[in-house]
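Narrative of accomplishments. A recurring question from our advisory board has been how the design workflow behaves on a single, concrete structure rather than in aggregate. To address it, we present the structure tokens for one chain from the evaluation set, followed by the sequence designed for it. No filtering or post-editing was applied between the two.
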């Protein structure tokens, strides 16, 4: 009996040692994975999500960034691009990249409106300059851009740059709208951003919040009568196929960002962090120049596709600006953005 008990104690002792050894190995492996959780074949793999079609501006800047990151790192950074909202629709992508469920995301700046302090100010009606390059400089090379980038960092995202789509215009499925009064009662697609909803409401239109990935279908089926977007977005997503009339209004500007989750960024070696920042900056320099050149021919392209153009009168633009002024002021007060709105006014006046 004693002999059997000794044997059992021996096996129990060895069993416990084996379990402890196994657990130590598992913990070691988990520790190593946490240091380099997205490494693959000696390269750091970043998954980049965007919600636009292949070939559009989102795809252009994403691929340029991937190309530059790969080239500058000697293949140590690989960027896998997932277009067409494969990983997430735009709002979910904005939330996901800050929470860490996505590595990187291309997102319209205004979609961060209720997520990051100050964001959304870039898309307010009648706030930015009519000059393309003044707006590019405002966000990429001024205290305004620096403050917004810091706000993004505080919320867990690293902004790699600001891109400009161009001025936003109004367009309609089947009604030839030429004045603000003509818009009364129309169902207008709005992004999921509060001041867009209020902007349409003060004109007498009926705002309908629809995510970007569903806008084509909403226009096609008549769920909405119209919407607004820059020329570039109309072309990229082929919205000219489901709309006939365009009213040039230039009432807002559209901007976009490429955001990296801060924890993902911090897990990169320091030299690769620098490369990510450099590649992002150069990708945005490239895409802002390319977009500026492309936009010049977009009106002619859309007219060639059968869209009929009108222009909002100076009188109606002034009326539009006056109607939306309280929307801008109320939004700035409720979103802690009065200071940055004043900064934008000062920067644009000085340059």
């Amino acid at each position: 009996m004693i002999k059997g008990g000794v044997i059992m104690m021996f096996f129990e002792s060895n069993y416990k040692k084996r379990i402890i050894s196994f657990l130590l190995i598992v913990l070691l492996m988990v520790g190593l994975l946490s240091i380099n959780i997205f490494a693959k074949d000696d390269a750091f793999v970043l998954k980049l999500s965007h919600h636009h079609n292949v070939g559009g501006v989102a795809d252009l800047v994403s691929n340029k960034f991937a190309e530059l990151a790969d080239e500058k790192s000697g293949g140590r950074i690989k960027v896998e691009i997932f277009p067409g909202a494969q990983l997430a629709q735009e709002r979910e992508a904005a939330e996901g990249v800050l929470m860490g469920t996505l590595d990187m995301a291309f997102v319209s700046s205004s979609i961060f409106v209720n997520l990051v302090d100050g964001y959304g100010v870039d898309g307010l009606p009648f706030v930015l300059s009519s000059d393309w390059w003044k707006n590019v400089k405002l966000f990429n090379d001024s205290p305004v851009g620096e403050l917004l980038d810091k706000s993004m960092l505080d919320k867990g995202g690293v902004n790699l740059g600001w891109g400009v789509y161009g001025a936003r215009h109004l367009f309609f499925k089947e009604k030839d709208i030429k004045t603000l009064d003509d818009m009364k009662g129309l169902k207008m697609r709005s992004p999921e951003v509060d001041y867009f909803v209020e902007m349409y409401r003060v004109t007498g239109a009926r705002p309908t919040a629809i995510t970007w990935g569903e806008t084509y279908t909403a226009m096609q089926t008549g769920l909405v009568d119209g919407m607004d977007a820059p020329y570039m977005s109309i072309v990229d997503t082929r919205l000219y196929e489901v709309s006939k009339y365009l009213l040039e209004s230039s009432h807002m500007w559209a901007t976009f960002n490429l955001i990296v989750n801060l924890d993902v960024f911090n897990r990169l070696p320091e030299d690769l962090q620098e490369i990510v920042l450099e590649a992002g900056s150069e990708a945005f320099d490239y895409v802002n120049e390319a977009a500026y050149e492309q936009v010049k021919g977009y009106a002619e392209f859309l007219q060639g596709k059968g869209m009929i153009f009108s222009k909002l009168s100076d009188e109606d633009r002034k009326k539009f600006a006056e109607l939306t002024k309280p929307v801008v002021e109320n939004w700035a007060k409720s979103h802690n953005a009065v200071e940055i709105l004043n900064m934008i006014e000062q920067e644009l006046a000085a340059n």
